Amino acid sequence: MPELPPFPLTLDGASLLHQMFRFDWPAWRRADTASRHRTIAEASALLAPLEIHSSEGRPNQSAVFAQLGHKGDLLLIHFRDSIEQLAKTQRDLARTELGTFLQPTHSYLSIVELGLYESSVKTYSLLSSEKVEPFSEEWDRQIQEMVDRQSSAMSSRLYPSIPDTKYVCFYPMDKRRGEHVNWYSVPMPDRARMMHEHGLIGRRFAGTVKQIISGSIGLDDWEWGVDLFSDNPGVFKKLIYEMRFDEASALYGLFGAFYVGVRLPVAELGSWLTVEQR
Prior knowledge:
39% of the residues lie in helices and 26% in strands. The chain is built from 10 helices and 9 strands. Strands 1-3-2-9-5-7-6-4 form an 8-stranded antiparallel β-barrel, surrounded by 4 helices.
């Protein structure tokens, strides 16, 4: 029998787009009052309905955050059923009057991902014991059946609503594949063990942080995107700090830039855009 696949199966869900902008305050100050009011009304009409989590069907939400630091002023996060819908949302925002004041500083495209390390190890081993050849028609059929069952059971996690918290922390990350350590050359049972131990830390923070992992291999510059939502920004530091001590992060984790924002409800967009000192 050929060797078993080295990669774990994954479940894919909602398509995510993070947009980071610097706001053109000088141009905004030059605009007359009527133009500002018109701009705010148009943007609110576009974004307000997307802010609401529908009780029927998938959420397909957007959320606005006031971004901290020099990396930008606004952070927009969009959850959609497909990349095509993200493209429409990006276009719709760009062609508003508000879009003329938004200067992109960064963006990130990804798809909500749930890794199935443990299920993959069990399923691959079972199929091997039954002498099913990897990637044969029978192999693909049984793999797809398992993926479909898992997807159905985890639908709410694959297509989540944007958590209604005050703060967000987003960052991209990779697994190291250098000369001395290479995540992708580690046997899958060992990777499964490390990811299980890694996940145990996150579960301890489940009551204070909502974590959404998205995959971006082939879609953006890093391999995964991580969103942390909480009403306590200090917990971001605690969670990420503790996770860096586990084997999966200490040896193999590489982290990109961090983006932190404070929730900006669309109803308060006009107040945020005021040019008068308060």
